[in-house]
Amino acid sequence: MEQVKPEAGTPAVEQPKVEPTKIEIKEQLKEEKPALNLEKTIKLALDLNRRINQRGKLLETINTLEAFEVAQKDDADETDTNFFQGCTLTIEDDKGREFTTKNPFIIREVASRVNALCVAKLAEIEGEIFIPA
Hints:
133 residues, 3 helices
């Protein structure tokens, strides 16, 4: 506090302290935003890296499926038949058991469903890739 020297015979008068306004306090808090500690920063970076890798794998799967379908269409005759005619779909588990089909309807539906699932998951993952303010 600032004190004014009194004149001879008068008491000392204290000057009122100026308080910062709410706007000034908010601006000061923005400037003093606490930095993430190292552990939180590393966790954030690893999480973003994982999501970016998931995005890359999903894009690769989508592109592979689309390229496969284009190749099948190009190879198909100019007829209205299913362009998956002649394809084989095989699903194998960890124990080596297999499910195999040559049914073009099933193959088309599986390819379509896998593509739709990948596109939906890609949108979800891309929505989670951001650096918090």
